[in-house]
Amino acid sequence: MTDQSITDQAARSEFHPRWYRERVSTWWWLGEWHYLKFILRELTSISVAWFVVLTLFQLRALLHGPEAYARFTNLLQSPILIALNVIAFCFAVFHTITWFNLAPRAMPVRMGGKRVPEFLVAAPNYLLWVAVSAFVGWLLLRTP
Amino acid sequence: MTGKSAIESSKTKPSSEAFFWLLFSAGGVVAAVLIPIQLFLFGLAFPLGWLPAPSYDHLMALVHSPLARLYLFFLCSLPLFHWAHRFRFTLYDGLQVKHLNEVIFAFCYGGALLGTVLAAYLLWSI
Fold first, then answer.
1. Which of A48, A71, A80 is the mutation pick for testing B, counting most B CBs within 10 A?
2. pLDDT tens-digit readout, B41-97
């Protein structure tokens, strides 16, 4: 860097020249779909935390007995919580899809010298997801 | 950054970061596979009456089996560590608040640890 370009900087001291770095806006991720997708993916963590908090409250209600649990399920029927859960559910599914689709990029599988197509590597994840979901549903819905 | 602290951080950082990253990815898998169905059933399908909600006794019978408790413990704790890692970097990168690194770190992992202890306590005493 030449002397001339350093002199152009506003905050310059004799012995510690500062290199120019443009400050990135806080909203840098709004401009482009790729960046927005990245931030949306990062924000899925909030819905993950929300789900755990909800589950902890549910366990607490179960612990406190049938009346407490009835109060908890009534609360879950309130429009605000339904709306929050719709949003959280969408983010949760977004996390699942982005997470599963990441696997073939993290571990490219090769067979016979050729790279296996990404959807084939991700496919077992989706199969597992469906199977586990069906099992959880069956456990909760079967009449004992 | 002075030379000394740079060496120190290069010594201590990789191993702890790897550990947190491992928790992050384990939690990511658990969250990806289990949260959609759990949230769909308890957050939407049962409250809206789309599906018949399990009774209190049915849920208690489930929760009393050791396997279900183990399942619930990992369902709560691992995704919390997933959240802690990801949310930490969301704050670092998205909002560029690097000067609050220590506070954010304590908040995220403190929260995850607190949730884990709470889950263990609730599942133990239920």
1. A48
2. 999 999 999 999 999 999 999 999 999 999 999 999 999 999 999 999 888 877 777
- Taking CA atoms, A36 is separated from A39, B93, B102, in Å, by 5, 13, 27
Q: Say yes or no: B65 contacts chain A, CB-CB below 8 A.
A: no
What are the tokens at A143? 């009449």
Could you state, in order of their start, the residue ranges of all structural domains in chain A?
A: 17-107
Mutation pick from B50, B71, B86 vs chain A, by most beta carbons of A within 10 Å, is B86
In A, minimum Cα distance to B89 occurs at A42
Task: Express each pLDDT in A65-95 by its tens digit.
Answer: 999 999 999 999 999 999 999 999 999 999 9
Supply the range of the domain harboring residue B59: 20-27+54-125
Contacts of A26-33 with C-beta under 8 Å, sequence gap 24+, read: A26/B95, A26/B96, A29/B94
Place of tokens 């990168």: B93
Sorting pLDDT into bands at 50, 70 and 90, what band is B14? low
For residue A88, give the H/E element and its range: helix A79-106
Name residues 72-101 of chain B within 8 A of A (Cβ): 72, 75-76, 79-80, 82-83, 86-87, 89-90, 93-96
Q: Does B44 reside within a domain?
A: no
Name the fold adopted by A17-107. Answer: 3 helical TM bundles of succinate and fumarate reductases (1.20.1300)
CA atoms within 13 A on the CB side of B65: 9
